[in-house]
């Protein structure tokens, strides 16, 4: 038996599908959906306008070729992500020895270790999508900069739905009028004919400015004897300005291995109730080949992430490729407010 037959795409897909999946914040706001093809004609931004980009190539591993987005042009293609991994020589020899000894428990252990590498690729695809979704709820745009080019999408948030605080109005000033700012932003959305936002997202550092604000501390505890907790401040904001607060944590690795937080410090976003858009997955070239009978060695997991295995002769190994084609839409971009508070 060829050891490479053990590393097959159906078993890899089954392994990944049976693992519990974590619901990411961005995914809860932009649920996954599938569409055929590669065009962005269903991707929408503010006022239901199509969001578009220039032509891209399909020969890039994980990093993205230069794309630009304008709200008033004809749609082209979604960004394409692709990366592969080989089985290293140490794992290959261990697997051969276990097969020779017919030791199933060791075979399963080695295969599980190999499959974890493939899971990391699939998780990396999810992180790219979450990266884009979280950029949308930070300021309504997508901006991914790499050595191979830039991916930039502007979803057309109205200019008066963004504000940069200056001077003593900045929230790191304990005397800032934080409640007044929030009420003003809510009024802007209401005056423009949109529903009043129900949620506020920010980082832990930015949330700390609220807890240190003099007026808010006095409003919560007039005697100054209570040690304030995050839960108390969240409850106060819910009662005072009718907003549920989400403190966004976590980070992702950039292409150069440095880490970037999902939600930037000093940013505050007001969001309406319900979904804000969708995460669209298109048809990757590998999936298209399978659909039209030209390649069956492909499986799709998590709505739109394609997995494909290829036997290699030199070196003797298995190459496993993971690819996805997609991006989030943002139909409710004009119902949000984005502020930079420091």
UniProtKB/TrEMBL annotation:
The source's domain of life comes to Bacteria
InterPro entries reported for this sequence: Lambda_capsid_assembly (IPR053738), Major_capsid_GpE (IPR005564)
Q: What is this protein called?
A: Phage capsid protein
Q: Which species is the source of this protein? A: Clostridium estertheticum subsp. estertheticum
């Amino acid at each position: 038996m060829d050891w490479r037959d053990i590393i097959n795409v159906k078993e890899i897909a089954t392994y990944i599908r049976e693992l519990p999946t974590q619901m990411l914040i961005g995914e809860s706001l932009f649920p996954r959906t599938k569409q055929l093809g590669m065009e962005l004609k269903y991707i929408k931004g503010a006022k239901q306008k199509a969001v578009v980009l220039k032509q891209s190539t399909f020969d890039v591993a994980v990093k993205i070729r230069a794309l630009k987005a304008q709200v008033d042009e004809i749609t082209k293609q979604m960004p394409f992500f692709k990366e592969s991994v080989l089985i290293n020589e140490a794992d290959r020899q261990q697997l051969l020895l276990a097969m020779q000894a017919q030791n199933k428990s060791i075979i399963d252990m080695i295969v599980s270790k190999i499959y974890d590498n493939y899971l990391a690729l699939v998780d990396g695809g999810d992180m790219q999508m979450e990266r884009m979704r979280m950029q949308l709820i930070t300021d309504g745009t997508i901006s991914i900069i790499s050595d191979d080019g830039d991916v930039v999408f502007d979803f057309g948030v109205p200019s008066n739905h963004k504000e940069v605080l200056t001077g003593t109005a900045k929230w790191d000033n304990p005397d800032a009028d934080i409640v007044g700012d929030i009420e003003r932003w809510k009024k802007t959305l209401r005056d423009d004919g949109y529903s009043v936002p129900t949620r506020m997202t920010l980082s832990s550092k930015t949330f700390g400015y609220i807890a240190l604000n003099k007026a808010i501390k006095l409003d919560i505890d007039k005697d100054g004897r209570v040690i304030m907790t995050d839960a108390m401040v969240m409850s106060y904001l819910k009662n005072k300005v009718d907003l549920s607060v989400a403190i966004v944590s976590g980070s992702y690795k950039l292409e150069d291995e440095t880490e970037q937080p999902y939600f930037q410090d000093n940013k505050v976003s007001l969001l309406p109730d319900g979904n804000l858009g969708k995460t669209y997955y298109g048809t990757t070239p590998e999936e298209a080949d399978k659909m039209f009978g030209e390649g069956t060695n492909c499986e799709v997991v998590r709505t739109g992430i394609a997995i494909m295995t290829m036997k290699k002769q030199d070196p003797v190994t298995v190459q496993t490729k993971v690819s996805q084609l997609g991006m989030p839409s943002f139909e409710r971009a004009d119902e949000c407010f984005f502020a930079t508070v420091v």
